[in-house]
Amino acid sequence: MSNTNDAVINDANNRVPEALEILREAMKDRDPGSYYDSWKANIAMAFIDQWMYGPDKADTAQGVHAIANKAASVFLNRLLGTDETQSDGMAGIAEAAQNAKP
Q1: I need a labelling partner for 42 at 20 to 30 A (CA). Which of 16, 36, 50, 86 fits?
Q2: pLDDT tens readout for residues 32-55
Q3: Distance (Å, whole) CA 86 – CA 51
């Protein structure tokens, strides 16, 4: 990693506490439709989507753990805009829902 990249990463890391404080302030309102509520819904849906359509099965604690970890990654990748498997962030979920067998 170059010194320039290190400096950029260090600068970003130094600003994380301020960013988290802004996020905490934005999430104080917990009413339906609030910023907090939207994060909660997206985290929950990431878990549900992985549970229902992912390759891991939740018949054991290890299965639930695998699903939860995958769901957390899905949520964070969508949040950061790094989910390369879905062009619009939800296309894969819609496709999986259409292809799901009853």
Answers
A1: 16
A2: 988 888 888 888 888 888 888 877
A3: 18
